[in-house]
Amino acid sequence: MQKKPLIMLLAAPETSASVLYGLYDVLLSVGAVYLDMVAGTPGKELLDVRIVSADGRPFRCIGNIPVEPHAAIDDLVEPDAVIVCDMYTSIYDVPKGRYPREAGWLRQMHGDGALITSVCSGSLLLAEAGLLNGHEATAHWAYRDMFQRHYPEISLHSESVLCLAAEGDHIVTAGGVSAWHDLAVYLIARFCGYRHAIETAKVFLISGHSEGQSPYSVMTRPMESADGSISDCQAWIADNYATTKPVEKMVERSGLNTRTFSRRFRAATGFSPIEFVQAIRVEEAKQILETDALSIEEVGAAVGYEDPASFRRVFKRNVGQSPAAYRKKFQRISQIARPIGAQ
Q1: Three-state SS for 270?
Q2: Average pLDDT over residues 89-112
Q3: Per the record's keyword annotation, is Ribosomal protein included, yes or no (predicted)?
């Protein structure tokens, strides 16, 4: 009898129950549930799925949800794949040295040929283990600044939902929390074939995130800086983003020459001055598009763009969608969320 592929879900108290149990349910169903739903006869489960933790003892994850691992990380035979579930950390709290045992185990499993994958903030553990050095990867968009500052040897693509660039080195990373859907479909296709991936997607109504993370991304960089002149300009532009010639006015306000201002601004924020202005304008435009009925031209003018074409171009470059497509996507959510009886 052929051995089932073994997939281990690595979890910790910082893991989301939705990621852990969602992955467990979907992966465990492969080969069994679809046949039961369409023919009334369950098939055979095709994957061996186990929840593991550092010590194997029961714990409670985010939301005080109980987790009873099947084993400790050192108790089972070598897996075919490991999924590092999300392990939430603040965008200001770099998890250096927090998971030494798990990091060492991941290095060992990778060296033994296992496919190492992650969901959302789980990529931080892969980064801590050194497995992403020199590779392209993705993680939740909120961690892009952390990766840039603390893991510069990693090329983070925060706009991606599923990054396969390091697949040849047995590493695959998934972006935001719900990107576990995309990772699950990928793993099913890899270990069980595309037909089972499609059938499982039909059972669970999984459609993937073809638009990437960019439409969901929000500007998260701190507005304060240790550089007083730059911090003052950041605060000023946050209230005056629609002004004409914003960079010239910030340079004048700082009392610095243009080249020095640009250098110090990038050092403090990670943005060039015009990129920072554009990012703030786009964030304001997104909020207007999500709820208001202004025309696209009016939205552009409200955030400082007299030329509608320029507004559309900057918006699409930053968000990955046109203003009209973004409005359609998020106003649909606002309509669903509207209280019963509201007009």
Answers
A1: coil
A2: 91
A3: no
